[in-house]
Structures are given as structure tokens and as C-alpha cells.
Amino acid sequence: MDFTYSDEQRMLTDSLRRVMDEGWTFKKRRARSASGELDKAAWASLAELGVTGLMVPEAYGGFGESTATLLAVHKELGRGIVSEPVIPSAVMAVSLLSGIENEAVKAQWLGALAEGDAIVSVAWQEQGERFSATPLVTQASVQSGGYALTGRKRHVWHAAGANALVVSALLDGEMALFLVPTDAAGVSMQDYPTFDLSRCADVTFEKVALDSTALLARGPAASALFERALDYAVTALCAHACGAMQYLIEVTTNYLKTRKQFGQPLINFQVLQHRVADMLIQQEMALSHAYVAAVSLAEDPAPLRAKRVSMAKTEVAAAARFVGEEAVQLHGGMGVTDELEVGDYFKRLTYVGLLLGDNNYHLQRAQSTTAA
Questions:
Q1: What sign has the CA pseudo-torsion 361, 362, 368, 372?
Q2: Which residues of 274-283 are buried (b: 16+ CB within 10 A; e: fewer)?
Q3: 73-106 tens-digit pLDDT
Q4: What phi and psi, each to the nearest 5 degrees, are found at residue 216?
Q5: With contact defined as beta carbons under 8 Å apart, do 37 and 162 qualify?
Q6: How many of the other CB atoms lie within 10 Å of CB of 295?
Q7: Which terminus of the chain is more exposed, N or C, with fewer CB under 10 A?
């Protein structure tokens, strides 16, 4: 796979860079976070650039872009530490819905997702299960031509801003995936901020009545769809982290060029140059791992894809934390103040290690696929 930008990719990333510089400034990000609600104007601006329809197949109104373009776009979004539900909806949910067999559901939801008219998140984590893909608490049963769903999901990324959730549940003892409108009777949620200025929610399902079309997949097919969607989301998150690291290194370097000590800029001190060089090495290594994950999405069979994506996630998360911590330290005491955006980037880069599975989960996942 060639990761050299084509003319179209360059124009798209240039446009995204301008939008990030204008619409995702420090003050505007903070204001949107303080509101506690999805900024529809910001979401519309991303949809207008094609971000929401990037991975939607052309047959359903999207662009059907390659994983190379996915990486390029999310690297730019990472520079602005975009907190809108791009990864859970435009990547994870789109990837999952694209693989189902129900054409009517695909036509209805994928088109709306491509246009930015709908947001769908994936609810899979449960109490005591951490990041296990197999549900235990959430159960579904057959009832009068449809299904009844009961259970609780935790840490559902951007659930409060979603129109529907893809929910994993046990149906007759096997994993199943259901599409559940968030305004359905029996659905309630507790929305809260995460420490990286994003949003999550705990969602409760109390005998939620669903029709037969709500069942997206069950059994091995459901597991395969979820694993594929997770791999796409993790790869996008890795690219996001690489973009955030790149921007943070630029900010830190500029600070060292302007801050003086002993009558000269801090950047002139060799020991600090070495630390910036270490940050650059970590960022470049992380980007290389993101490339491996993107290639694996397009070319590898499922077990090898899962292994490579999970290994990339652990390496990128480690690099992200290193770069974030170094940036804070090189800014001195100012690095942890609320007045600088350095702290916001540090929080996002730290949170990358917990999103979509922590290091322990991905190491175990990589080992299990190797053993298989």
C-alpha cells in the first residue's frame, strides 16, 4: 500500500488542516466541551468535508475510501484533538453496518451516516468485563415477532449524541448485535465527561422492545463483524494519536525556541535537544505502526489483522504517553496549568491507552490470535 499522498488526499488533508486551525482552536474546543452537548455546526463542518462519509461504500452515498486515506484524515483530526464522535460513528459503526446482510437497514443508516444526518455509537463494554467483546449482562430474548433487550453498558463513547446504538447482547447463548434507537422506550443513559474533554455514558436497557430488523447479526458472524469494526476504530485512533503527537512536538519546540534561560533560548541546550529528538523518534515509530495497522486492515486475514492492529495499539499508546509527558515536563510548571493547551493534548494522549481496549487487553488479544 502506498502512503504517499495523492493529489486528492493532499487537497483533503490541506482542507482539514485549515478547518482544524480555524474551528478547533484551544478556546473553541474548551467552549464545546463546557457545553456538554454535541456542537451540530462543528459536526456539519466535518460532514461537509466528507469525514463522515469517508468509509461508507459508494453504493450508499459515501466515498468508499482506502485505509490509507483513513489514516491520513484521522492524523489531521488528531492535530486538532477532535472530540466529536468521528471514530465511534464514522469509523466503527460504519464498518460494522457495512458488513451486515440487511440491505434495507444499510441503505437507511449508511446514507444518513455519510451525510452527517445520523450518529451511531457502539455499546459493548459491561460492568466487571472491562474490554471483553463477549457480553454477559446484556441479554436479548425473542418476543412477539421481535426481541426484548435488557442489560447495561458502560463507557459508551458519545452515546448521548447518538441517534442509535449498536448493542452487543446474548441471544440464546450466543453473541448478537442489535441496532437500538436511543429514543426507544426503556433506554436510559447517564452522560458524563471524560478527563480528555470528550463524552461517555452508561446506558441501561429495560425490556426494550425491538422489531425483527433490529437484529444485525448473531453467532460467529456477529463476532467477526465486531472484531473488524474494532480494528478499524483502533487504527483510526492510532492515526489520531500520531497527529496529536506531531502537533504537540511542534508546540513544544516553538516554546523552547522562545523561552530563554541564562540569556539564550532553551532549544540551544543540548540535553533538551536530545529530549525533543526522543519525542520525534517515538512519534515516527508510532506512525510506522499505524501504517502497519492500516495495511493489515486491507490485506490480512482476520486473525493476523487482529494481532497486528492490537500490537500497533500498544506501541502507539506507549509512544503517546511518552510524548505527552515529555511535552509537559519541557514546559515546566506551565505544562500542567489550565491556561495552556499542552495539558489538553497530554490528557488525550494518555487516554488513548484506555480507549478501545487497554494495553493488557490488546496484548492478550495479540497472544490469543497467535496461539490460534
A1: positive
A2: ebbeebeebb
A3: 999 999 999 999 999 999 999 999 999 999 999 9
A4: -90, -40
A5: no
A6: 18
A7: C
Buried b (16+ CB within 10 A) or exposed e, 332-368: eeebeeeebbbbbbbbbbbbbbbbbbeeebbeebbee
- In the chain the first and final C-alpha atoms are separated, in Å, by 27
CA-nearest of 277, 279, 254 to 265 is 254
Query: What's the CA gap between 242 and 221, in Å, rounded?
Result: 32
User: What pLDDT digit, counting tens, does each position of 286-318 carry?
Assistant: 999 999 999 999 888 999 999 999 999 999 999
Classify burial at 128, counting beta carbons within 10 Å of its beta carbon; exposed 0-12, middle 13-18, buried 19 or more. exposed
pLDDT at 59 over 90: yes
Contacts of 216 by beta carbon, 8 Å cutoff, 6+ apart: 96, 97, 100, 102, 105, 166, 176, 177, 178, 179, 222, 225
Which residues make Cβ contacts (< 8 Å) with residue 256, sequence separation at least 6? Answer: 265, 266, 267, 272, 276, 330
**Number of C-beta neighbours around residue 17 at 10 A:** 14
User: What is the percentage of the chain residues whose pLDDT exceeds 70?
Assistant: 98
Beta bridge partners of 166: 122, 179
What DSSP character marks residue 2? Answer: -
Averaged confidence pLDDT in the chain: 93
Q: Domains in the chain, start-ordered, CATH in brackets? A: 7-119 (1.10.540.10), 121-218 (2.40.110.10), 222-371 (1.20.140.10)
Whether 74 contacts 243, CB under 8 Å: yes
pTM of the model: 0.95
264: how many CB neighbours lie within 10 A of its CB? 9
Locate cell 456538554: which residue?
Answer: 36
Instruction: For residues 275 and 272, give the distance between their C-alpha atoms in angstroms, rounded to a whole number.
Output: 5
Angle value at C-alpha 338, between 334 and 340, nearest 5 degrees: 55
Q: Which of 167, 160, 302 is nearest to 231 (CA)?
A: 302
